[in-house]
Model the fold of this input.
Amino acid sequence: MSLVTEPFAYEFFRQGLFASVLVGALCGMLGVYIILRRMSYIGHGLSHSVFGGAVVGYVASINFYLAAGLWGFLSALAINATARRRRIGADAAIGIITTASFAIGVALISKTRSFTRNFEAALFGNILGVTPTDLIIVAVVTIAVAAFILLFYKPLLFMTFDVEVAPIYGVNIGVVDSLFALAMAATIVASINVVGVTLIAATLVIPSTTARLLTDSFGRMIVISTIIGAVAGVLGMYVSYWLDISSGATIVLLEAAGFLVVFVATTVTRRRRSWTEQPVSTLVHDRTGDDLG
Done:
């Protein structure tokens, strides 16, 4: 029992655990839309873009969350606008805009020589160093994104699967896209101090991809992905505490291990099902090479 209760004696663990559960659930929830819209790269790219905005905010003495959030929101809008052009795909738009933003941040750091530990945390995460302010922001963003998904469930469904038909059913593409861009930017900004720029893409993609293997239902996929993210956050914190390794990396590794288990299990199950459903003549033909037709 001490394995579970002992870490709670430390405030940094309690705050880190709360943050990891919220971030895991938040990224798992929003990640479903990202992978189904085939924009998996956007988590990696937009986090780099937000990093550039954070550096600009630091140099200009602007609040981290304000500068990074605004920069990320504008980057997401630019990506959506660029990706709508027939000759430019979403992956190319993400690559161009986010790497340019990251390069701005690197250029400013090299110019000012003011790279601090805060930005090391932004790059690699510092879940055990989250502050009460960080927790409040993560909680507010999680609630806001959940409310957005509930209120715009059907418009988001149209935007995800058939964006060309959406206007026929009264969906305002521009408004929904802008709100989705804001949700993505807010999610990444709120999560960046917990898992860092280098790992945030994994927390967005792995739980939702795992959920996709487990169900074909859109609603259940969101629920499963959210649960996977939250559970990985809890287990990751405990494993990292007892093994004394990076919390963010541990959470991602557990999510990856879960994906591997589900992938193997669903693959084996699918093959067994297809094997048992084959006609007897087909099975005999497969084994002997003779067609008994």
The CA atoms of residues 11 and 128 lie 9 Å apart. The domain at 2-288 is CATH 1.10.3470.10 (ABC transporter involved in vitamin B12 uptake, BtuC). DSSP finds 13 helices and no strands in the chain. Residues 283-293 have pLDDT under 50 and may be disordered.
